[in-house]
Amino acid sequence: MNDKNSEPKPDVISGRNPVSEALRSNRPIDKILVARGEKSGAVVGILAKAKNKMIPVKEVDRAKLDYISGGTTHQGIVAFAAVKDYSTVEDIFDFAQSKNEPPFIIILDELEDPHNLGAIIRTAECAGVHGIIIPKRRSATLSYSVGKASAGAIEYMRVARVSNISALIDDIKKRGVWVFGADMDGTDYSECDFSGACAIVIGNEGKGISRLVREKCDVIVSLPMKGKINSLNASVAAGILMYSAMKDR
Q1: Which helix (H) or strand (E) holds 131?
Q2: Any idea what the Cα angle at residue 199 is, between residues 237 and 123, rounded to 5°?
């Protein structure tokens, strides 16, 4: 009897030809795992294509590939495809313009937990967010787990990927977007005005937002803490701030 936990998810592509075809068809690929020491010509060619497309590649033990592929033939290589196509930053601005609303954007600075990303997508869709922006590396992606955690909201939310979050913040500030970074020792969120074009930055679950990203923000916004723990789960904090912004808008 198969172990349900070892069955491949819909976003897993196993085998040299399937992975090669996925790359050739320009299907969005989040990352590729290759067996440690695999040097066959076909795999080398696939990895060269992945490098040209700036797709992250990681070497792992074959046992891990066996588990991920659920017992199907992987031939030493597995790719993780996005369950939905990524949007562009321009798509997000265009959508806000089509609704005649000032842009309302969530920026995730290296958020890694897929359940947090899924929960944020779900809340964002309910709160009227026009789009979410994530980095291409060191971030949860639009995987099967994220789609499931979003409870279907992933189908309606525009999610864009960028190479550099700091540069992205510079760009959107030039377009009139006011950037709020969620971190400690900032302005109480209840005193902030989110009514105009705004972006809220949520950081990594453990490290928070990076120093450089924090410096780029116009305002650091904080949630009051009265307990003995000094931080909230990232998706919970994001939800509170999104609904506070929705109230202002």
Answers
A1: strand 131-135
A2: 45
pTM: 0.84
For residue 117, give every residue at least 6 positions away whose Cβ sits within 8 Å of its Cβ, in sequence order, or none.
108, 111, 134, 140, 146, 149, 150, 235
Question: Are the beta carbons of 187 and 220 closer than 8 angstroms?
Answer: yes
For 78, the 3-state DSSP assignment is strand
Contact 30, 81 (CB under 8 A): yes
At 25, the amino acid letter reads S
For residue 201, the model assigns a pLDDT of 98
pLDDT tens for residues 236-247?
A: 999 999 999 999
Chain center to CA of 116: 10
Residue 249 is predicted with a pLDDT of 85
Decide: 77 and 85 in contact? Cβ < 8 Å: no
Between CA 141 and CA 213, with CA 176 as vertex, the angle to 5 degrees is 45
Over the Cα atoms of the chain, what is R_g?
Answer: 20
Place of tokens 């076909």: 42
Note the helical H segments in the chain.
16-24, 41-52, 62-68, 89-98, 114-127, 144-149, 165-174, 211-216, 234-248
d(CA 18, CA 159): 25
β-sheet bridge partners, residue 29: 81
What confidence score (pLDDT) does residue 6 get?
Answer: 47
Residues 6+ apart with CB under 8 A from 12: 68, 69, 70, 78, 79, 80, 81, 144
Burial of 247 (0-12, 13-18, 19+ CB in 10 A): exposed
